[in-house]
Amino acid sequence: MRDTRESRLLLVLLIAIAFALITVDIRGGEDSPVDGARQAAATVFGPIENGVSGAVDPIGNAVTAVRESGDRHDRLAALERENAALKAELGSEDRGRSRLEQLDKLLKISGRGQYGIKGAQVIAIGAAQGFSWTITIDAGANDGIKRDMTVLNGDGLVGRVTTVGPNTATVLLATDPDFTVGTRMESGDELGFASGQGDRPLRVELLNSKAEIKKGDRLVTFGSQADRPFVPGVPVGVVSRVDPSGGDLTRTLYITPYVSFSKLDVVGVVVQAPEKDPRDTVLPEKTEPKPTPTVTVTVTPSAPADGQYQQEQ
């Protein structure tokens, strides 16, 4: 429509009529004179509106579903994060309990031997400084660690310090083929030298080839001059095999170490040696094998019947 004076007057007139009808409809309520026209319009346009609503509602429902799905995804992600954090917390608690147990054993062994120790944690294992059987601990020169100090844990001898940095140190394990420590048999004075053999039992050469040794005997460190690199009395291991004496100057033993070298975590570096040799006091208490009960069955002969007795007579 062209914008003319007549068209503008018609537009104003239509707007006025519309306001008048709205005013009459509102004031009339249910008795509104335009109620019939409104119902007729609803009859005509209702199906169309429903159709449009039916076409639009799935889209709205889909948007709502996506929105709610996003909310559910966020809640699920939050629950997954909480679950992972809980598992990590439980895992850390288990690890914390394990470390507390190791620390408790370490304190007990240091107390029995009167060793002054510096606790440390294993932070690396493997080849280091040219050695093949080593660990790295998180204690170094700043903690008073020096080269050629004894390293132990709650079970026994771990190794000796070989390289020291400001905050870390390298420990040569007792299983390394280049490792050698002087040993002494429990409850005796038989001396020897234990050497590492990797993942095999430690090999011990006793100085006395005629020494009476049997499986199950135990060994401790003999100690070094000025207690470096080894302090005395640290448990080393248990005899697992004794080679027959063949007239050699020494006798060969094989011992299973007390320490499980594949599970090292908390260790202690002996920074102060004991005032006197603890001898065998640091060894764990022996567990006596329980005797196997013997069952004795006694057979008591039954008395013969009267008839049988008379027949024999």
From TrEMBL:
Location of the region described as Disordered in the Swiss-Prot/TrEMBL record? 274-313
According to the UniProt entry, which residue ranges have a biased composition of type Basic and acidic residues?
274-289
Q: Which domain of life is it from?
A: Bacteria
Supply the alphabetized keyword list: Cell shape
Q: List, for all copies, the residue spans of the domain called Rod shape-determining protein MreC beta-barrel core.
A: 130-270
Entry-linked InterPro entries: Cell/Rod_1, Cell/Rod_MreC_2, MreC, MreC_beta-barrel_core
Its function, per the record, reads: Involved in formation and maintenance of cell shape.
Annotated family: Belongs to the MreC family.
The protein in question is named Cell shape-determining protein MreC
> Which species is the source of this protein?
Streptomyces virens
The primary gene name is mreC
